[in-house]
Amino acid sequence: MKRIAILGSTGSIGTQALDVIRANPGHFELEVITAHSNAALLIQQALEFRPNTVVIAREDLYEQVQDALQHQDIKVYAGTNALCAVVEMGTVDMVLTAMVGYAGLQPTIRAIKAGKQIALANKETLVVAGQLVTGLAKEYGVNIYPVDSEHSAIFQCLAGEFHNPIEKIILTASGGPFRGYTTEQLAQVTKTQALKHPNWEMGAKITIDSASLMNKGLEVIEAKWLFGLRNNQIEVVVHPQSIIHSLVQFEDGSLKAQLGLPDMKLPIQYAMGYPERLKSDFPRFNFMDYPQLTFEQPDLKTFRNLELAFSAMEKGGNMPCILNAANEVAVSAFLREEVGFLQMSDIIESCLAKVAYIANPSYDSYVETDKETRVQATELIRKGAKTSTK
Ligand code: NAD
Ligand code: MG
Predict the structure, then answer these.
(1) Cα separation of 117 and 142, whole Å?
(2) What is the CATH number of domain 316-390?
(3) Which atom of ligand 1 is nearest to the CA of 16?
(4) What are the tens digits of pLDDT across the range 173-192?
């Protein structure tokens, strides 16, 4: 029995993780669930799964959750501090980080320091502070199991091969809804179009990241830290069908890939159940439904975010932290329809040039960098970032 805490239980990953737990009552026990603002769904989940503890991040929603659960044997807390504290509970074995964005960094660090196993969906944590977080995981003897489908694929390919050096890894990318678009076409795309991903149903932020290829950029940096790779060992190939989830090439030239239908429940279950493969009734892949699996070079000139991510990774230090914060601000502004699709890259590029570079950041410097970048990015949006035609 693994006792699980889910940070972000009301989101796309969180609800699918609950599906996995519901289907495997003999393997997992739900100890903690947390959410930002969807109190109604959090209450419904608490009543169904009866976890030990529930946390709502927005303190103004505390009463609503507390009232609904007052006759249950469930503890209710509110606020960010509570969210960071519950991951340390003695009854928790594994923390699934399924919240979105930089907000995942602090609770992930707290969970690692408390010796909890991590199932990591929140890629932003490794983008912002990969060196620090993986260093702490080593120090506290904690494993970080990837939930992201590409990283899960690589992890699955590495099973039984951990002693064999990797030559390179190849991350596959669907290319998103705007694959093949020109810069002129991208300048016109709307929020509604960007929110329609061809293969995956995900939260709004990662769906926009997938449309701009920033998601792949974040995943390149995530892979570097998860698998201890040099920058030049990571490649991206566009594979529109999203059947091959990623590949590893070993030093003898052999390539191993992991395949399957695009369904996040499989990587979530693999991370939570590792080292077991639990029997599932997920739909099975049929080659005849996919007679053609195709591959393309990513278009870094048109989709500048991927290039910006590679360059932030090359420069290292706090650059990926700046990239992430600027992107979070830019994506929220795009979702509020305050900036166009291409302006997101302009904002990120400006922030990477403006915010002070720190070669060896401490935790406090990441916090400071994140804060400063948000101020800069917000200011750029206020002034009206120029519309890019680059
Ligand atoms: P989502 O928007 O659907 O859900 C986010 C969850 O986090 C919600 O439960 C929300 O209440 C909570 N949350 C958001 N902001 C918070 C804050 N400031 N404090 C506390 N809780 C907060 O997002 P998602 O699509 O489930 O993605 C979650 C994470 O998993 C992201 O980092 C994403 O990149 C990663 N991921 C998602 C998918 C996918 O298929 N959805 C695939 C790979 C990786
Ligand atoms: Mg992914």
Answers:
(1) 5
(2) 1.10.1740.10
(3) 26
(4) 999 999 999 999 999 999 99
